[in-house]
Automatic annotation (TrEMBL):
Cellular localisation: Plastid, Chloroplast
Binding partners and assembly: Homotetramer.
Family: Belongs to the sulfate adenylyltransferase family.
Keyword Nucleotidyltransferase: yes
Residue ranges of every copy of the ATP-sulfurylase PUA-like domain listed in the record: 50-212
Listed name of the protein: sulfate adenylyltransferase
Any GO MF annotation of the entry: adenylylsulfate kinase activity
Enzyme nomenclature, EC number: 2.7.7.4
Upper taxonomic lineage: Eukaryota, Viridiplantae, Streptophyta, Embryophyta, Tracheophyta
Gene Ontology BP, a term: sulfate assimilation
Length: 440
């Protein structure tokens, strides 16, 4: 069973990426160095917040006074119509979640991502990038683009969303992309079925200029805070540590225990005001995941009922689509939170995983995600906090961290199973059941 960990404070040990117990303390010198690096980023990385990848947050949104000019330019260009997932990637890129990427990947960036899970910058430094952020086009679109060096990206309503400049068109090696990203080419992978299988045989990369901020008009846009807005919020709350927790399903009592215990441990380490970023994934998810609207209602209820402290918790939606690519994808999830200002990342069992689409087994080893994060290139400045296993302790009548010395006292209950246990009367339910029924 994994306990919660942090990385060693000494930079000389960072290449080993061997997790240590969370009770370790970072040296004051290391903290000062972090703050100085952040200060050097001026508006892009403030005070105690971790520095974004590449040293600054990328913002690809057009200035308001130039929007009309860009719309006119877009109308005169060859166009590429965006799918829903394409639009989600435009959103991700435009706000700097993938900093320092300045647009859809050109071939060199695509190959580095596919083969090395990282990008080498001009100064020789390396940043993590584990999933390709690419835009596919078909033969007819390629023909229409011809020799043009820029294209307009069009939304489902026919209006221009963005411009893509200095474009490069190259072959879309679908089989290799799938095999390297997922570790299998088995049929039935949700993202592959939705976004790759029937996509064009070409990829188009270039520098992105986004004309309008991406909005979904689903009543949840106010939750979609950009990395810059999140950094502003963390600064406003005087956060000296930010720990991020991603989930794609409702919060249950085990999650709540983990998050509150993590904050307690960070306080024990000497941090004065650790702030939780509760960051549900809001892009494409598979059909049997809980819809985003219901998840957000449940997350709000968690704060309303005081399960998590509203003063030290920020809830926001992460706009990325979900790949279900296990240890490969969890690196992307962690890297994006660096750009949002998080310096601690909680990783669970089988992060970004799923059942094998053909065989009756999990697609990935449940422990590989946290192991990969501890070694991944370009994530050295992020402290990885592996999940502590929580279960329902029958002797205490509540959720607690599992103790291997008395396994008979614990029930491992999923949120779905929890709703079926015990009496239907709230007054007679166990805390686990009451929590699930009240919030899911």
């Amino acid at each position: 069973m994994a306990s919660i960990f942090c990385k060693p404070a000494s930079p000389s040990l960072s290449h080993q990426r061997r997790p240590l117990a969370l009770s370790c303390r970072f040296s004051p010198a290391a903290s000062v160095r972090l703050r100085r690096r952040a200060a050097a980023g001026a508006l892009h990385a403030r005070a105690a917040l971790i520095e974004p990848d590449g040293g600054r947050l990328v913002d690809l949104r057009v200035e308001p006074l130039r929007k009309d000019e860009k719309r006119r330019e877009a109308r005169a260009l060859p166009s590429v119509k965006l799918s829903r997932i394409d639009l989600e990637w435009v959103h991700v890129l435009s706000e700097g979640w993938a900093s320092p990427l300045s647009g859809f990947m050109r071939e060199s960036e695509f190959l580095q991502t596919l083969h090395f899970n990282s990008l080498r910058l001009e100064d020789g430094s390396v940043v993590n990038m584990s999933v390709p952020i690419v835009l596919a086009i078909d033969d007819s679109q390629k023909h229409k683009i011809g020799e043009s060096k820029k294209v307009a990206l069009i939304g489902s309503d026919g209006k221009p969303v963005a411009l893509l400049r200095d474009i490069e068109i190259y072959k879309h090696p679908k089989e290799e992309r799938i095999a390297r990203t997922w570790g299998t080419t088995a049929p039935g992978l949700p993202y592959v079925e939705e976004a790759i299988k029937n996509a064009g045989n070409w990829l188009i990369g270039g520098d992105l200029e986004v004309i309008e901020p991406i909005k979904y008009h689903d009543g949840l846009d106010h939750f979609r805070l950009s990395p810059a807005q999140l950094r502003e919020e963390f600064t406003k709350r005087n956060a000296d540590a930010v720990f991020a927790f991603q989930l794609r399903n409702p919060v249950h009592n085990g999650h709540a225990l983990l998050m509150t215990d993590t904050r307690r441990r960070l306080l024990d380490m000497g941090y004065k005001n650790p702030v939780l970023l509760l960051h549900p994934l809001g892009g494409f998810t598979k059909a049997d995941d809980v819809p985003l609207s219901w998840r957000m209602k449940q997350h709000e209820k968690v704060l309303e009922d005081g399960v998590l402290d509203p003063e030290t918790t920020v809830i926001s939606i992460f706009p990325s689509p979900m790949h279900y690519a296990g240890p490969t994808e969890v690196q992307w999830h962690a890297k994006a939170r660096i750009n949002a200002g998080a310096n601690f990342y909680i990783v669970g069992r089988d992060p970004a995983g799923m059942g094998h689409p053909v065989e009756k087994r999990d697609l990935y080893d449940a422990d590989h995600g946290k192991k990969v994060l501890s070694m991944a290139p370009g994530l050295d400045k992020l402290n990885i906090l592996p999940f502590r296993v929580a279960a329902y302790d029958k002797t205490q009548g509540k959720m607690a961290f599992f103790e291997p010395s008395r396994p008979q006292d614990f029930l491992f209950i999923s949120g779905t199973k929890g709703t079926t246990l015990g009496p239907t009367s709230p007054s007679k339910q166990t805390p686990f059941v009451r929590f699930i029924n009240g919030l899911c």
